[in-house]
């Protein structure tokens, strides 16, 4: 193997949410010989998540920021071009971190094999970590019964949209909280939730009902402070994401007094705790997807060169649904 490929990397260290100009395209030479236990892969679809904006600033779970020129985080669906690991064959499809690149050499042990018959981008969204997150929140950390009122913010996104559909399948009345009318239409028209509340509208707080049984928090303080007084006694809150605070750098403070007053159950969710159960989730979800009872909305950019602009849109909360980059036309 003697090949030079393109890769998107940080152009310089950053301390603010990323913009397209923070990235650069470089040329990288692949190893001349495939190391033992390695795969030579071609990335096909790249998934971009809000946490990446934190990760590349060194603000995610204590992980250091990648230096300029180092490979960037972000899961990829890739095809195997060659293998030095007997568990993988040429033509297999795998998911893992490869960098934002045309081609890459990666450790086979860090990749998981997936079924292309179930789709490609699906393994980065509804059948991947976002879907697992939603399932863990709605079925493992929260207890939802028929007739319960469930609220979910960032409800047009990959996690929120899947979580809302799972709550509907459990018999709940589900209200999605979103930022903007386009996202509201996704929530009601495509995810088929019962209602959408746009927090960009004046007086949006009055559109939320009382008696909320379960709330999934993906945004942060500005939504949680509104939902909490509307929680029913002994209601449940699952804390999953803090998109507001990723963007503005502010601290999120848990309002202890109201939580005590509501006798609320509050649980934090780290999806990595549930990674060993990913197969359990995909086995449950796959037939629901085939039947059209679980759907996914995608916001897709095309080509490796569009990845920086798509990451900026993710960081600014402008994407609609699961944000991906189709690398096949690069």
Word description of this protein:
Helix 3 (158-169) links the parallel strand 9 (149-153) and strand 10. This protein has 330 residues and is of the alpha/beta class. It has nine helices and 16 strands. It has two domains: 4-125 and 296-326, Quinone Oxidoreductase, Chain A, domain 1 (Alpha-Beta Complex); 129-272, Rossmann fold (3-Layer(aba) Sandwich). The radius of gyration is 20 Å and the shape is globular. It has helices spanning 50-55, 129-141, 158-169, 181-190, 221-227, 243-248, 256-262, 278-290, 307-315, and strands at 4-10, 23-29, 38-47, 75-83, 93-97, 100-101, 104-107, 112-114, 149-153, 173-178, 195-198, 212-217, 231-239, 265-268, 298-302, 322-326.
Question: Ranges with pLDDT <50 over ≥5 residues?
Answer: none
The whole-angstrom Rg is 20 Å
Order of helices and strands: EEEHEEEEEHEHEHEEHEHHEHEHE
Binned strand content: 25-35%
Compact summary:
Helices cover 25% and strands 28% of the residues.
């Amino acid at each position: 193997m003697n090949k030079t490929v393109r890769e998107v990397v940080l152009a310089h260290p950053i301390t603010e949410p990323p913009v397209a100009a923070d990235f650069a395209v470089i040329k990288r030479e692949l190893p001349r010989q495939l190391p033992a236990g390695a795969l030579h892969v071609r990335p096909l679809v790249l998934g971009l998540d809000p946490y990446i904006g934190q990760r590349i600033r060194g603000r995610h779970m204590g992980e250091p920021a990648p230096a300029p020129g180092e490979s960037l985080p972000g899961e990829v669906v890739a095809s195997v071009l060659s293998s030095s690991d007997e568990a993988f064959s040429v033509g297999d499809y795998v998911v893992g971190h490869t960098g934002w690149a045309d081609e890459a050499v990666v450790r086979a042990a860090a990749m998981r094999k997936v079924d292309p018959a179930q789709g490609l981008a699906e393994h980065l969204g509804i059948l991947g970590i976002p879907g697992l997150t939603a399932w863990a929140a709605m079925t493992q950390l929260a207890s939802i019964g028929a007739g319960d009122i469930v609220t979910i913010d960032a409800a047009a996104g990959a996690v929120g949209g899947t979580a809302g559909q799972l709550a509907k399948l459990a018999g709940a009345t589900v209200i999605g909280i979103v930022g903007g009318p386009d996202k509201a239409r996704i929530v009601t028209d495509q995810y088929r939730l019962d209602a959408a509340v746009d927090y960009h509208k004046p007086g949006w707080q009055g559109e939320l009902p009382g008696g909320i049984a379960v709330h999934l928090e993906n945004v942060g303080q500005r939504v949680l402070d509104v939902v909490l007084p509307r929680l029913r006694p002994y209601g449940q809150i699952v804390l999953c994401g803090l998109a507001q605070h990723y963007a503005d750098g502010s601290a999120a403070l848990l309002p202890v007094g109201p939580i005590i007053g509501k006798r609320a159950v509050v649980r934090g969710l780290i999806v990595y705790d549930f990674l060993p159960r990913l197969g359990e989730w995909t086995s449950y979800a796959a037939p629901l997807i085939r039947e059209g009872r679980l759907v996914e909305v995608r916001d897709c950019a095309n080509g490796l060169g569009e990845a920086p602009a798509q990451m900026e849109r993710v960081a600014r909360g402008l994407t609609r649904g699961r944000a991906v980059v189709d690398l096949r036309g690069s």
